Amino acid sequence: MSSHLPEWFCRMFSSPRFAPYRSAVGGDDMRAWALYRWNMEASEAFYSSLHCLEVSLRNAEHARLVSRFGRPDWWVAAPLRDHELMKIAKAERTLRDKGVADPTADALVAELSFGFWVSLLSRFHDRRLWVPVLHAAFPYYSGPRETLRDNLQSMVLLRNRVMHHEPIHHRHLEADHTKIYRLLGYLEPEVVVWLKGFDRAPEVLKRRPNGRSR
To answer: Which domain of life is it from (predicted)?
Structure first.
């Protein structure tokens, strides 16, 4: 890293980690430093909308599956794949390791990942879950299952980059933000109205420092 950067930054943030930011601004360390900080701000700003999408999705799907199978632990009766059942078992072990002696269905639902809930919309589950039950979790959507699943999966990837402190500056973040709102609208438009009252992402995205973007 350049000697123009603060010494503490060079010590605390590795050159390999900083490399994607330098590449995005043609190797200018000071511009890359500004982009690094903005990337953190953008990640923080996306937290609220991603939070709303993940929680709304899992609760909408869970409610429909409980109704369909007549029990809060619907996964006992649902036609899930082995790797999905393994994720549920792993979630239960995680809760027990945290000291939860007898995890409830609600606790397990909260422990399951965003990716798990999106996986229930895969082609494998088209006739097993989507047609008989999960389409109803999206009362304001009328398109094909696969398009919905692909759009949600792209948000899983964004969410994982945000939560693992990875670069997101190279993405078309304005399009990502629009997509989150669209997906939320398929679940419940009132969530969109509520979110807009405190969502910081539009303001942060306008302050992106100079550098490569879509």
So the answer is: Bacteria
- Which of 182, 155, 153, 180 lies closest to 168 in space, CA to CA? 155
Roughly what angle, to the nearest 10 degrees, separates helices 29-69 and 189-196?
Answer: 150
- CA dist 49 and 189 (Å) reads 13
Give me the chain's average pLDDT, please. Answer: 93
- Tokens linked to 124: 């494998």
The answer to whether the CB of 141 falls within 8 A of the CB of 186 is yes
**Is the predicted pLDDT of residue 117 greater than 80, yes or no?**
yes
SS in 3 state form for 35-95?
Answer: HHHHHHHHHHHHHHHHHHHHHHHHHHHHHHHHHHHCCCCHHHCCCCCHHHHHHHHHHHHHH
Which has more pLDDT, 193 or 1? Answer: 193
Hey, what are 145's tokens? 């299952």
Helix 29-69 to helix 145-163 angle (10° resolution) is: 130
| Two structure tokens written together for 49 | 């909308």
Residue listed under structure tokens 């050159």: 15
